[in-house]
Fold this sequence. Notes:
The complex is a heterodimer.
Chain A: H1 17-31, H2 45-74, H3 84-118, H4 127-146, H5 173-201, H6 214-246, H7 259-293, H8 300-313, H9 329-341, H10 343-359, H11 366-389, H12 391-397, H13 401-431, H14 437-463, H15 480-505, H16 548-551, H17 555-560, E1 575-579, E2 586-591, H18 598-614, H19 618-639, E3 648-652, E4 655-658, H20 667-696, H21 711-735, H22 739-766, H23 775-806, H24 816-845
Antiparallel strand pairs in A: 1-2, 3-4
Helix pairs in contact in A: 2-3, 2-4, 2-15, 3-4, 3-5, 3-6, 3-7, 4-5, 4-18, 5-6, 5-18, 5-20, 6-7, 6-8, 6-20, 7-10, 7-13, 8-10, 11-13, 11-14, 13-14, 14-15, 18-19, 20-23, 20-24, 21-22, 21-24, 22-23, 23-24
Chain B: H1 17-50, H2 57-85, H3 87-91, E1 99-106, E2 109-113, E3 121-123, E4 125-129, E5 134-140, E6 145-148, E7 156-158, E8 164-168, E9 174-180, E10 192-198, H4 200-211, H5 220-231, E11 261-262, E12 267-268, H6 271-279, H7 281-284, H8 298-310
Parallel strand pairs in B: 1-5, 4-10
Antiparallel strand pairs in B: 1-2, 2-3, 5-8, 6-7, 6-9, 9-10, 11-12
Helix pairs in contact in B: 5-8, 6-8
Amino acid sequence: MSARDDNPTRDDAAPSPERQRxxxxxxxxxxxxxxxxxxxxxxxxxxxxxxxxxxSCLFFLFGGILALLMRVQLAVPGNDFLTADRYNQIFTMHxxxxxxxxxxxxxxxxxxxxxxxMLGARDLPFPRLSAYGFYxxxxxxxxxxxxxxxxxxxxxxxxxxxxxxxxxxxGIGADIWLLGLSFIEVASIAAAVELIVGVLxxxxxxxxxxxxxxxxxxxxxxxxxxxxxxxxxxxxxxxxEMERAFDWPFFDPSRGGDPVLWQHLFWxxxxxxxxxxxxxxxxxxxxxxxxxARTPIVGYSWVVLAAVxxxxxxxxxxxxxxxxxxxxxxxxxLFSAASQAVAIPTGVQLFCFLATLLAxxxxxxxxxxxxxxxxxxxxxxxxxxxxxxxxxFDFQAHDTYFVVGHLHxxxxxxxxxxxxxxAYYYFPLITGKKLSDRLGRxxxxxxxxxxxxxxxxxxxxxxxxxxxxVFTYPANAGYDLLNMVSTVGAFLLxxxxxxxxxxxxxxxxxxxxxxxxxxxxxxxxxxxxMPDRPWGIRSIPIIESRYPLWDQSDxxxxxxxxxxYLPDAEEGLRETLVTSVIDARPMxxxxxxxxxxxxxxxxxxxxGMFIFATYHWWWPAILSGLAALAxxxxxxxxxxAWIPEKDEKDVGLGVTLPIYVSGPxxxxxxxxxxxxxxxxxxxxxxxxGYFFYWTIHEDFPPEPYxxxxxxxxxxxxxxxMSAWGLTVFAKRWNRDARAGAFYAxxxxxxxxxxxxxxxxxxxxxxxxxxxxxxxxxxxxxxxxGWTALHVALGILMLLYCMARRFAGKMxxxxxxxxxxxxxxxxxxxxxxxxxxxxxVGFPLVA
Amino acid sequence: xxxxxxxxxSALDPAGRGAxxxxxxxxxxxxxxxxxxxxxVGLAIYAxxxxxxxxxxxxxxLWVIGGGAVIPTLVLTVLLIYxxxxxxxxxxxxxxxxxxxxxxxxxxxxxxxxxxxxxxxxANEIRIPVGEPVQFNLTSADVIHSFWIPALGGxxxxxxxxxxxxxxxxxxxxRFRGVCAEYCxxxxxxxxxxxxxxxxxxxxxxxxxxxxxxxxxxGPLEVRGREVFLRRGCGxxxxxxxxxxxxxxxxxxxxxxxxxxxxxxTLENSPDAFRKWIAHTSRTKPAVRMPDFDMIPEADMRALAxxxxxxx
Lengths: 846, 312
């Protein structure tokens, strides 16, 4: 840590060729990809990222086929190609698959694959978490998609508005949606945590905050948005599923509920979601444009600020999806203005790209063509977006084909075209071979023309009166021809995708490997050899520029000869550097775990829990959940917080770094902190529910309901707060090497926890609050249930720490476990205080 | 292009004050959007193909600030002032004393009542006078629906447990079509209604006629039809005022023969359509609550259709 101030830049002399070869052999041995059937136990970001990307592309094709089925049905009025019920399943699945199984995962998948390369890291900080997320995604995705083939798919629309989805759809379709996709959302959040920690802590030395590649900036913004956008949806999913499974009346107006609460929770997620999907594609453009303009991006800090600004603003726009709900005019006006404001940071980003194109000398190629198609198309989507943001116009356009046209211009223009550009741009990085320029151009014209023929007429279709989500329409309504045109265009568009898919999967055995850095790009990921080696990067360089390949002399040579950090794997372990958040000073030599099947089993059992619960098979669900817990514990026990054989390690260039750190320096601490931010967001969404019900009811808590009382919940709070205090002391005494005091404190904390949790539950139990009678007891029970579940997790963590200490895997010096558990407990204490404050305190003042 | 905008269900062929304002807003926005798109895309083509050479860096920063921030802010401010200035007029209640129409959305039809004339219960058809504001009070009996007459103005949702309202002011007489705009289950696509805008005098006359009980059947076929109607238990769900049929689950049929369409805008109103609807209800409208009465013999069915058609 101390050695960074004198700024070594590289080793002046390369190690001897012989030594280089030895280093390479050791690195290869450490990073070797497992072979045979064990290949699937790989956890390295290159493998997991590639599988993840491929899987989300397959889901995209599935969603595309669903779209074609819809277009066939709508080609002519009164068509009976699909029944109403089938059509409704298909449009629901098209939206859900594209959003949850393609648009968000493809960004996370692709980022898992390339982020370490961009940051000169050997891997992401939690490779096994990526693998767990991938398997969860695949299992959940197949479960959700499979339902289509059994005529059991969800049919409530991707927005799942109750009460249609609570009282009027008795099948399991809605449960598949709620539980299957919640499972995937959890995996999405896990990936977001990993990516955030990756960008913050795994950058190469010298890559200060103003040198971060734009793609990584966008990842940081988008992953942060996922962290705050997905939890409200998960909270909503919990409420909706509780109503479906146990008749807790959150959205039933006859028992005090309100369907509009779901709309708020859904769109607090749903609007940022649009930017979660769109910004990563802007990020791809931000990498492609400078490469082909042969000049650094114009207005780097403008782009970063605009991206951050878009991220923030996107959380303040959700009501524009609800302009027709009948909200007060003032609300509509405010959200109308905010919705238009978001066009400004978007405009800034686009003009930065245009200025970069102007500033440089543009070399034409397939990626830049698709970038252009993306810009030209997205701008139309943006302009129609400004139109629907003007509330009066939205009164007409809302829920019509105008919006279908608008959103596809945003999502295809803003997302799909840049992704195709990215595919052509980054393909050599993944397989070492380029895609075909000729096929790329054919695909370009097919996609661009097919897309516009499909979606441009839809604006007219909508304004001449065709609502969305209709399985058919009457003849002579004024939009027969427009629909036929859209259907023809859809097949042209599909043909374009067939060409792209063929270009990707066609055998390339005879095609020579591409030269290194085929596009003459300036960013770090293009250091990769063709084909790439499993170690990620030969030695971790010191960065002095945003475009080191353009600006740093002899850069590739120095990296390849191992003149930078960690050129070797002396101990045969997988290692990468952890640096400081702002100025990227080396702080730790992080050892990351290697291949395992544990992550697969953890995901399978977690999936089992959700899938069995869908069918209300409670015992298998509980058993599967316990098995998931056991495998995850085993994974943590064997794969995290190893005590190294030595305290410090020479990582090269005269720098010696610790191997084991705990607290805010450790990536694990950051992961816990970030995860708990998401957890708290879900909790706050539930609390928002409580106060939402207060705003819509004259008397809330309502008269005849006694409430949980003050006594029991207060006792619970006191006990749980003392458990929190004891946990803090346990951490301190562990560090002081006072084993006896540590065990005593931790044990007392567990006892206080059990008593406190029981007291908390005793409150509504003693008062006889029945959650099925009214929304008030139901929301009180949900808050208590949420807290109790977290208390149970807190107990488990304390027991885990005691076991680790007992097994000698945690010591006074190596205390990452208890440090992270204490961090969890800080958030738990906050949860307890808020819960008790709301359920006990609020009725006193209301 | 304007020809393609016409239609009884088109927001671009306005026949109401709100729809006119919104259509004008749209045309202005469309014009602006086309200009902006041409400029920006032209700039991109210029940069990529026409003048792919280095440009001055400082000048570029001005482009970013001017094109990305300053101009959009100005344009959006003007648009916001224009757009929001019409908002109060669109969301406010109709003045005291205006005609009130209560509409309930149900899977998948519309119940329409005129509170001032209590006996009138219509289904899937709304008639209103031209040139005066009409306030619609909107509720739902089951799931969320959305009440939309594109030619007259914007839409407002019907949310269970809430009452929303919409004020419309037709500016010309004619027949228009309204639809449900919020996805509401299997037959969401088959939930439309007819709107007839009339001169005030004609409207009053019509409303008075609607208050009358059903006409006595004239011919023998119609008499037999009424007998079938009552014997088959249609009255459990449907009411025909003046008979003992007083069901409240399905649409009131007292004047069903005079309506423009059947099955919430699904079929033209004709004796054949009645037969198709009654015998093959679920095929005509999937998942509808009314059972198929395909067991009714052909002759009875013919009489039933004739009777219903006679209920003008």
